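User: Here's a chain of 187 residues. Predict its fold as tokens.
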Amino acid sequence: MNIMIVGVGGQGTLLASRIIGNAALALGQDVKVSEVHGMSQRGGSVVTYVKYGESVASPVIDEGQADIILAFEELEAYRWVSYLKPGGTLIVNTHAIAPMPVITGAMAYPEEIVKKLQEKQVQVTACDATRLAQEAGNVKAVNVVLIGVLARTSSVSKEEWLSALRETVPPKFLDLNLKAFELGYSI
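Assistant: Prediction complete.
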């Protein structure tokens, strides 16, 4: 299984990859998790990879090889969709974060991104994970909301996902993240 997690710096892609990796370990699989690639401290585009299976040599996922992409922001989903296999699954937060060229007025933010993504040969699940994270108590829980959406259709049981959350998330943020997970899981 090849999973890419894409977003912008500060959205928790690395924590998300650790949670997914810990959940995959419950399947008794070989698991590889990458480091963050991109400008994670400057609000730039970032990507992490999680691969698991009988034997995994490298965590890197090449174009056209991802089974699933979790996108924390629409434009990042659009930027990385070519990495999905035909028929792959894209789970995307419908919240937009303007990159610097849009902020400065040099470019316009693309319109109707989710509609454009739905025209690709992939399965798209779009949700306002930002709103759900706020409902859970903190906008930074977008990552766990999206993991909840992913968990609904994965081969990992809900109990194993919750166990992965408990062992990965710091105790002082656990209740918030459990609530965020449940909100995503219930979509």
